[in-house]
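Entry for the shared binder. Reason: the reviewer on the internal report wants the predicted structure included alongside the sequence.
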Amino acid sequence: MKTSPNGVALIKRFEGLELEAYQDIAGIWTIGYGHTGPDVKPGMKITEAEAEALLKRDLKPREEAVERLVKVPLNQNEFDALVSFVYNVGIEAFRKSTALRRLNKGDRIGAAEALTWWNKATVGGVLREVAGLTRRRAAERALFLEPVNPPIVKGEEEVAENSRVTPIEDAPRRPNLAESRSVQGATVAGGAGVAASTLGRNTAQELESKEAGVEAPAPAQPGETAEAGEGAPTETTEVPAEPPTPRKPPIEEAQIQLALMILIVLAVLYVVFARIDDWLRYRR
């Protein structure tokens, strides 16, 4: 895995370019983009092309160290951030760091946070925070946690995010009749109405046929009242027959009819709201 141009730019930004050897705040002789080593001596001068070559040479062992020491998969942003970190603190310091230990345990958030702890340096024999290091660690942490934008996949063809492509309109497709919610709701309402009508007609016919076959009870036999006295005429009364009690529809049939009527109402409301939604969705 190689450092991306974005990662190289991050390193260049914080290292800066110096074409003549100088001592950094820790007293280490440095030249180019933060290049150090026994080959850097006071009064040494290089060109910008030589500085680029030194940077490329210095990146290789740092990249190899990150690949060797990190045991979990890395995306490009994570790799770039770690290479920048190792370029600054050194391979051995990275190997012993809490950031690496957390990362290899799968704690990416904790590893990114641990990067920010490396913002101090010994200056004049005193360990103190360095503003430039604090800014660099914050930038490396942000890059480490920044998700990599995946390429846009169109079928089998990958299109880079920054490619010049012709945009197409992907407007919502108007459903056909079989998919129309209005038609579906009307179908449900019609079916429920037919079922309710059929059930009501059958129930009425059943009641009429049963009521027509009911026989009126025979009149009661005349009886004698109490004697008012000897020779008094005997009065007789007829007990009127009780009218037949009309049969009520069974409770189950009434419940079914009520349920079907509720279903019809809901289906009609569904049709109304579906039509409104279709009009709002597909109007031009």
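Summary line for the report: The longest helix spans residues 181-212.
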